[in-house]
Design goal:
transferase; Dolichyl-phosphate-mannose-protein mannosyltransferase; alpha/beta; glycosyltransferase; cell membrane; 5-stranded mixed sheet
């Protein structure tokens, strides 16, 4: 008799093993925080009920995690690592209870862990991290609520959704997804009163943002409208641009769910069409709906590859019964596909001890993937050294890029509140904080740091340039670029180039 595989133990070995790998990745000295991570970290140093473009959850979680693990990559990425463990655990447990099969639960968990969108989403701490966690929690709670008479489950689903809304406004997609399912299964009338209760509890998550936007000229609403293509001058139809946008979107989505899993999607949707199984419909619906909605929007505007990814998480539960009941030949492909999908990410994340990844395709992939995470630690230390050597108080640290300004705030040991000058960019969080305009007339020192500009030009006019240098940054032995550092004295004028765009 063959030994039975302990699928529960195997799942947790993989889940916790990948969590350890992510911690090791956070400790890789040559790779710094992602620029968006640095921005959200700086938000946590300025806690508020809402921010220019996002709700407050990412800042609150950063505040808590860096209070435990320090202001470092590990402190920032502790949240996605922990939420990733629990999210995969929810996928495994829910699938096991749903199908009464541990092997099926194992494959659901493995697919979830191996999809690039969830692997990356639970490595880097962005607003998608917590929203995906609360999406899974809310969608599973809704399943229980719909298939029971338990009003408490509807309320719990509403609370989870409210926390998701406090993470990212895209959590609102849960309402049309749930309504489509209720209509498709003919149960809307039966659950209408409870659905309204669920919606009312959920919308509590909007209250802080609505109050904040009333106080700040509806900046968030204007920003979201701008992302959707509203406003601005009408542009002539460009077929080539349309093809570029849609190709980038659809190609990116195939990569995010792993091209190795595409045959399973074909088999799963084929089975769903044939059997009309409501359980499979429930698990496939969120991902399919968001994929199509953002796909339609890609005809009119550029869509970032991660935007629909939060709803792809339940694809793992949708695919699990398909991949666990394949024929012998297909099972071989399944095992290879899972290994390749996970293995590709693992190879990139592993530490480069002994320079074993200093050339070849892995090196090239890392160079492209981590380009926005290089050189900021050294840059912060160099700017801190210059600031300390000037004497006469703390100089004002500024940049034309909020990405660079965020990284400097994180990597300078003094963690200063950096400033951003507007040289023709859209509005951002720095437009809501005390800015350079309040420094006009300050006779002290100012340090400009930029990876794009050679000077502040006519935007910030100073009395004297004291010092300047260029600091190169590298990936391995390859030069990636240079950072310009200038020390100025006495701000005479500040003339922002305000385009009025959001």
């Amino acid at each position: 008799m063959k030994n039975q595989v302990n699928y529960t133990l195997l799942f947790w070995v993989v889940n916790l093993g990948l969590a350890i790998l992510k911690i090791l990745f956070a400790l890789r000295p040559e790779i710094d925080a992602f620029t968006e991570e640095a921005q959200y970290w700086l938000w946590s140093r300025n806690l508020d009920w809402q921010y220019y473009s996002k709700p407050p959850m990412v800042a609150v979680l950063n505040f808590l995690s860096t209070g435990i693990a320090g202001h470092s990559e590990l402190g920032i990425r502790l949240v996605p690592t922990v939420l990733g463990i629990f999210s995969a655990g929810m996928i495994f447990s829910f699938t096991k209870n749903l199908y009464k099969s541990t092997p099926t639960a194992f494959w659901a968990g493995l697919i979830f862990l191996a999809m690039p969108i969830t692997f990356l989403g639970f490595t880097f701490h962005t607003t998608d991290t917590s929203m995906t966690f609360f999406w899974i929690l809310a969608w599973f709670a809704l399943w229980k609520a719909i298939h029971s008479e338990d009003k408490k489950s509807w309320i719990f689903a509403g609370l989870a959704t409210a926390l998701g809304i406090l993470s990212k406004n895209a959590m609102l997609f849960i309402f049309p997804a749930a309504l489509i399912y209720l209509v498709a299964t003919g149960s809307l009338k039966k659950h209408l009163s409870n659905f309204i209760l669920f919606a009312l509890v959920s919308l509590l998550g909007f209250l802080p943002g609505i109050i904040w936007n009333f106080q700040h000229d509806f900046y968030t609403f204007k920003h979201i409208a701008a992302l959707g293509g509203a406003g601005g001058e009408p542009k002539p139809f460009d077929f080539g641009l349309l093809i570029a946008r849609t190709t980038e979107y659809f190609g990116g989505q195939l990569a995010m769910v792993s091209v190795f899993f595409l045959p399973f999607f074909y088999l799963g949707f084929k089975k769903l069409w044939k059997d009309k199984d409501t359980t499979s419909l429930y698990m496939a619906l969120p991902g399919l709906m968001t994929f199509l909605i953002f796909g339609a929007l890609s005809f009119f505007s550029w869509i970032l590859v991660n935007w629909p990814g939060f709803a792809f998480s339940t694809f793992a539960v949708f695919l699990a019964p398909v991949v666990s009941s394949l024929s012998h030949g297909w099972k071989k492909y399944r095992n290879i596909a899972g290994a390749l999908s996970l293995g590709a990410m693992i190879l990139i994340y592993l530490p480069n001890l002994g320079d074993w990844k200093s050339s070849g395709p892995i090196y090239s992939a890392e160079k492209a993937l981590f380009k926005r995470m290089l050189g900021y630690d050294d840059l912060g230390k160099r700017v801190q050294s210059l600031a300390d050597s000037l004497g006469g108080g703390n100089p004002i640290i500024f940049s034309e890029s909020y990405h660079t300004a965020s990284e400097l705030a994180l990597y300078m040991p003094s963690h200063p509140q950096t400033l951003v000058i507007n040289m023709g960019s859209r509005k951002n969080q720095w437009d809501l904080w005390p800015g350079m305009d309040l420094q006009v007339g300050n006779t002290g020192r100012f340090i400009l740091v930029s990876r794009v500009k050679d000077s502040p030009e006519e935007v910030a006019v100073f009395g004297k340039l004291i010092y300047e240098e260029e600091l190169p940054f590298y990936f391995g032995k390859d030069s990636i670029g240079k950072s310009k550092i200038q020390v100025w004295e006495h701000l005479l004028e500040y003339n922002p180039v305000d385009l009025g765009t959001f």
